[in-house]
Design a protein that fits this description.
about 190 residues, two-stranded parallel sheet, 6 strands, about 10% strand
Length: about 190
């Protein structure tokens, strides 16, 4: 878990393009720990989830005071909902009451997780995501080791890291003339 002072979500496009890997990299590194028993007291580690937790909460506005007070506990639980990815097969260990308020998923009428619950992954998908992150980190390290260290900001829609950067004077990127790397969802051929 990564505790944040505001709301944050894993963005599929930013993960695919090596921009948002920190939380996933932590879990991938722990999974490869050579002797987990010395650090965690376990012989084998099985990764199950990665989450951001908003410490301030994100409260939705209610219709009326009566409606807001009627489900104050539910509203509080939803305000601090974890966002990230998790192995759907580990749901019993993560959410034993299956209230779907702490983690972002929905159950169908048969008690299974609905297909459109984007944060719930199959075990295979979850492991593939962690393997991909490890590959991305290795490739990034190889590029840096080979000398590739240019400043090359991205743009995703209207979002760009330059808007929040304290080092614009050092990198000297002219936002008016520099062509940003435009990030889009990769096709299946690009990701395999």
């Amino acid at each position: 878990m990564d505790y944040k002072s505001s709301s944050k979500k894993l963005d599929k496009v930013l993960v695919e393009h090596d921009v948002q890997l920190q939380l996933l990299a932590y879990l991938a590194a722990i999974c490869r720990w050579p002797e987990p028993e010395t650090l965690f007291g376990a012989k084998h580690l099985v990764p199950a989830s990665v989450f951001y937790v908003n410490l301030r909460g994100q409260f939705e506005s209610g219709g009326t005071r009566t409606e807001a007070l009627a489900d104050a506990i539910g509203a509080r639980n939803l305000a601090y909902r974890h966002t990230g990815r998790f192995d759907a097969g580990a749901l019993d260990k993560l959410d034993s009451v299956k209230a779907a308020d702490q983690f972002n998923y929905r159950l169908n009428k048969h008690g299974g997780i609905t297909a459109n619950s984007a944060e719930a992954l199959t075990r295979t998908e979850f492991e593939k995501m962690l393997d991909r992150v490890e590959t991305q980190l290795r490739e990034m390290g190889e590029r840096i080791f080979s000398g590739a260290a240019q400043v090359d900001p991205y743009r995703k829609g209207k979002q760009t890291p330059c808007d929040y950067c304290d080092y614009q004077a050092a990198c000297r990127i002219d936002k008016w003339t520099h062509p940003d790397r435009v990030l889009r969802t990769k096709t299946v051929d690009e990701t395999d």
